């Protein structure tokens, strides 16, 4: 499917079943976006208010939660506007590429946050002494800056190249904002490679951690292992699960996005293409539950915050 075929169908030609599908997807995105706003705000609140979690091990998690919050707000506002405007009376969208640039940033930054999280975990496990002593301004801040810069650069290209370009609202997406289909496919495959690389990097860190533990155990130095790696291994479980959820949903969503470009009919395109948006908002909404299920410290901090806030002093 090329650019002309992607933009060929005007809103007036949309059959009723397609409009029903589009509206259902908009409602689903609206609900997921609202959940993402609430849950990502809760993660930020718990981490920032808890002394046990407010440390270098959760810096990249804070960055990811901020992106989840931005994702939720962006999708909630845009989908609410789309629902209010309705489907039948929609005109070609001249602001599509500007909005797509924002959503593209959220999508790509979720993946790049997972990259930063994986690099952070790798350094923490493989070089624990360096990780404990290095300043966050010399390691974490540059790491997050580099990962965010990639997402910002892609979003700027989308917004600038497609500025003012009229696109049918049901076809609105970053693909039509690029002037090269080669670039579209290249970037999607590059992001897929990044996602798989994150998966294998985390697998390698787990294997290395287990190997190191067994090595210390054979030397009867298991206590020394706990002294050096206790914090890393305790946090690694949580952040590894968070990363795997992000990577899995990114891979599934991007496969669906590539499949949508090969779709031969409107309803197939709509379902495949919007699956990527569903996976993005679902990821933003799920991170809170993943952290809560895998981190005892997070659950304790969450419990303390809500118990303290619910206790009414008699004085």
Number of helices: 10
**Mass-distribution shape:** globular
Low-pLDDT sequence parts = 1-12, 310-315
Whole-number count of domains = 1
Gap between N and C termini: 70 Å
Which topology does CATH recognise? Rhopdopsin 7-helix transmembrane proteins
Report the strand count.
Answer: 0
Helix fraction bin: over 70%
Keywords: Cell membrane, Membrane, Transmembrane, Transmembrane helix
GO molecular function: G protein-coupled receptor activity
Pfam families: 7tm_1
GO cellular component, one term: plasma membrane
Outline the secondary-structure elements.
Elements: H1 3-6, H2 16-49, H3 59-85, H4 96-126, H5 128-133, H6 140-161, H7 181-218, H8 222-260, H9 266-294, H10 296-310
Structural commentary:
The chain is an all-alpha fold and 315 residues long. The protein has one domain: Rhodopsin 7-helix transmembrane proteins (Rhopdopsin 7-helix transmembrane proteins, Up-down Bundle). It contains 10 helices and no strands. Helix 2 runs parallel beside helix 9 and helix 4 runs antiparallel to helix 8. The protein is globular, with a radius of gyration of 22 Å. The N terminus and C terminus are likely disordered.
């Amino acid at each position: 499917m090329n650019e002309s075929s992607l933009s060929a169908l005007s809103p007036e030609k949309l059959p009723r079943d397609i409009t029903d599908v589009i509206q259902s997807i908009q409602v689903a995105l609206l609900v997921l976006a609202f959940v993402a706003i609430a849950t990502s705000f809760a993660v930020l609140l718990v981490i920032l208010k808890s002394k046990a979690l407010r440390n270098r091990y959760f810096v990249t998690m804070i960055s990811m939660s901020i992106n989840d919050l931005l994702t939720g707000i962006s999708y909630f506002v845009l989908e609410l506007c789309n629902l209010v405007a309705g489907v039948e009376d929609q005109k070609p969208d001249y602001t599509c590429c500007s909005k797509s640039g924002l959503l593209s940033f959220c999508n790509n930054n979720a993946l790049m946050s997972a990259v930063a999280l994986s690099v952070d975990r790798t350094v923490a496990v493989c070089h624990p002494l360096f990780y404990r002593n290095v300043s966050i301004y010399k390691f974490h801040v540059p790491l997050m800056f580099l990962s965010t810069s990639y997402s910002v650069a892609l979003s700027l290209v989308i917004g600038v190249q497609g500025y003012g370009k009229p696109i049918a609202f049901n076809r609105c997406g970053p693909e039509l904002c690029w002037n090269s289909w080669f670039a579209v496919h290249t970037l999607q495959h590059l992001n897929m490679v990044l996602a798989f690389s994150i998966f294998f990097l985390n697998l390698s860190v787990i294997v290395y951690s287990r190997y190191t533990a067994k090595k210390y155990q054979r030397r009867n130095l298991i206590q020394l292992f706990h002294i050096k790696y206790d914090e890393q291994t305790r946090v690694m479980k949580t952040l590894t699960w968070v990363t795997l959820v992000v990577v899995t949903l990114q891979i599934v969503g991007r496969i669906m996005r590539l499949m949508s470009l090969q779709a031969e009919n409107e309803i197939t395109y709509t379902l495949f293409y919007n699956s990527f948006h569903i996976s993005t908002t679902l990821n933003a909404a799920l991170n809170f539950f993943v952290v809560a299920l895998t981190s005892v410290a997070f659950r304790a901090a969450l419990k303390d915050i809500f118990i303290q806030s619910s206790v009414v002093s008699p004085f």
